[in-house]
From TrEMBL:
Source species: Nephila pilipes (Giant wood spider)
GO molecular function: ligand-gated sodium channel activity
Origin superkingdom: Eukaryota
Subcellular location: Membrane
Membrane topology value: Multi-pass membrane protein
Record keywords, A-Z: Ion channel, Ion transport, Membrane, Sodium, Sodium channel, Sodium transport, Transmembrane, Transmembrane helix, Transport
Protein name per UniProt: Acid-sensing ion channel 3
Pfam families listed in its UniProt record: ASC (PF00858)
């Protein structure tokens, strides 16, 4: 035996004329340019936790990878910026509403996992929000 309960469903649809455009960030997953690494340098892994799953042949291989990661983490921001991919290398053009993105809407930051990054339309109290 089933109990039957009345179902009340209310749906309101609101059409807005414009929406705030969100911030969009783009990063290069490769922390450093390939030519910056020595030929025999181990690859930098995206996370230290990945080390336990890598196919290193012995402990010295894993130690070498850990050491490379540690050196990268200990670099100052300017050095990481120089050794990393510049946003202009991986973002060729930025258009918003068919026009080139204003430079004052672009900001740069670094992420230890993803390398150098660029953000379009970062929240800024001094500028009016972009709308679509």
């Amino acid at each position: 035996m089933y109990f039957l309960y009345p179902i009340v469903f209310t749906l309101e649809v609101e059409q807005v004329k414009s929406l705030e455009f969100p911030a969009v960030s783009i990063c290069n997953f490769n922390r450093m340019k390939k030519f910056v690494l020595s030929r025999d340098a181990p690859l930098l892994l995206s996370e230290r936790s990945s080390l336990m799953y890598c196919n290193a042949t012995n402990d010295s291989d894993q130690d070498e990878i850990k050491e490379s990661l540690q050196q990268f983490y200990e670099m100052d921001a300017e050095r990481r910026w120089r050794k990393g991919h510049k946003p202009s290398d991986f973002m060729q053009k930025c258009l918003f509403r068919g026009r080139i993105c204003p430079r004052n809407r672009l900001s740069y930051f670094q992420n230890l996992r993803y390398g150098n990054c660029i953000t379009f339309n970062k929240l800024n109290k001094e500028m009016e929000a972009l709308v679509i």
